[in-house]
Amino acid sequence: MSKRIVILGAGESGIGAAILAKQKGYAVFVSDGGSIKDVYKKELEQHRIEFEEGKHSEEKILNADEVMKSPGIPEKNEMMKKIRAKGIQVISEIELAYRYKGNSKIIGITGSNGKTTTTSLIYHICKTAGLDCALVGNIGYSFAKQVAEDPKPWYIAEISSFQLDDIITFRPDVAVLTNITEDHLDRYDYKFQNYIDSKFRIIMNQQQGDTFIYCADDEVTMQNINNFSIKSNLLPFTMRNELKKGAYIKDGEVVIATEEEKMQMSVYDFALKGKHNQYNTMAAGLAGSSIGLRKEKIRDAIQSFEALEHRMEFVATVRGVDFINDSKATNINSTWYALESMEKPTILILGGVDKGNDYDSIRDLIKEKVKAIVCMGLDNLKIQNAFKNDVAVIASTSSAEEAVHTAFHLANKGDVVLLSPACASFDLFKNYEDRGKQFKDAVKNL
C-alpha cells in the first residue's frame, strides 16, 4: 500500500511537493484552510491530486503517514497541534525535494538579511560559469516541482528558517549563512535563541567535504557557532582582518581564498553598491570559488549582476527628489542597511505588520539622516511613539499612494524618498512585491 502524505497549504511549495509526491507513488491529499488560486487548482486537477480548500478535514489529515507543512503555517495552528499530538512525522518541502534529488548538488542560502540578493548572485555566478542549475526555494520556484519536472545537476536554494524547522536529512553541499538578526520572533515564542538554532539547522547534516560559508563580522553568528558540532569546511568572510582561507576586503580590494585558488578584485567593480552588498558579494564569490568555478567567470558575474526588484531599487527622480523602493525590507535590520547607505536627506516610509520590532537600533541613523517619517500601515502608533523625539515630522497614511504624495510634499529638491518599511506588508498589501509595485505606480503617477 502506498504511503499517505498530506500537504498542508496549497501555495507554491505545497503544489510543488504534491506533484513530486504523486510522481513518486505517494497517496497525496492537499488541504488548504483558505482558498486555492485557480492556477494551482488547475495543476492539482491535471495531476489528479485530491484536494480541499476553506477547511482542514481531520479525518482526512490525521490518518497521514507523513505531513508536508507549508512554511507559512505556524506551529500554533490548531491542526498542527493535533498532527503533533498524534506523532505524525512533519517535513518541509525542501526535505521532500532532497529525498529525490539524486546525485544533484545543492548550494543552500539562509540568513535574516541579504539571502535573496546572495542567492540570486550565486545563481548568476553559476550560470555565467556555464553550470546547468536552477534557482529554487524561498525565492520563487518550488524546489520539489523543479526536481519533479526539470531536474538539474545543481540547485541554488534560498531557504527560510521555517523551511529548516522541518528538515530531517536535508544536507546542502555548500551552506551559506549571511547573518542572524531578530526576525520572525512571533513564530519562535519571542525567544531569539529558538530562531538562532533554527538558522543553524542548515549545517546539521553536513559532513567533511561539505562547505559552510558565514559572516565572521556577525556577532550573533560568532556567539553561537561553537555551540554546534560542525563537520564541514569553514569559509568565513569579513571586513575586519586578513584571512588565509575565506574572503576579506582590504584597501578597497576583495580577496577570495579557497583551497583551490585566490582571486582579487576591486570593490568599485562590484555591480551591487553599499556595504551590506559587499558582504553579500563576498559570500557569493566564496560559494562560486568553493565549487571550483573559474575566477574569471566569478569576476565577470560579480560585475554584470543586476540588482533585484524591491531591494534598494531606484524608481525615478521627480523634480529633483529621488524615489527608492526597498519594499523587501521586512525587518529592522534591512532598514538599518538601507539607511546606512543613504547620502542625501531622507524622507523614510515605514510601517506595516510589526513582528516585534525594537526600533532603538535605527534611532541613531534616523537622527542623522531622516528629516521626516511617513507611516504606512493600519497601526502606526508604535512607530510614532518610538521616534516622536527624534524627527520633526511624522505623518500617518494608509495607502501607498497617500504615502508617496505625503512624502513628496515633505521633500525638497536633493532629498530622497525611501520606502524601507521594516515590517511585513499583510495589513494593506498582498505581499512585499505588491507593496513595492503600488509604491512604484504611485511615484510614476506624480
UniProtKB/TrEMBL annotation:
Pfam families: Mur_ligase_C (PF02875), Mur_ligase_M (PF08245), MurD_N (PF21377). It is found in: Cytoplasm. It comes from the Bacteria. Its EC number is 6.3.2.9. The keyword Phosphoprotein does not apply. InterPro entries: Mur-like_cat_sf, Mur_ligase_C, Mur_ligase_C_dom_sf, Mur_ligase_cen, MurD. It catalyses: UDP-N-acetyl-alpha-D-muramoyl-L-alanine + D-glutamate + ATP = UDP-N-acetyl-alpha-D-muramoyl-L-alanyl-D-glutamate + ADP + phosphate + H(+). One of its GO terms (molecular function) is UDP-N-acetylmuramoylalanine-D-glutamate ligase activity. Residues 310-423 form the Mur ligase C-terminal domain. Residues 109-287 form the Mur ligase central domain. Belongs to the MurCDEF family. This is UDP-N-acetylmuramoylalanine--D-glutamate ligase.
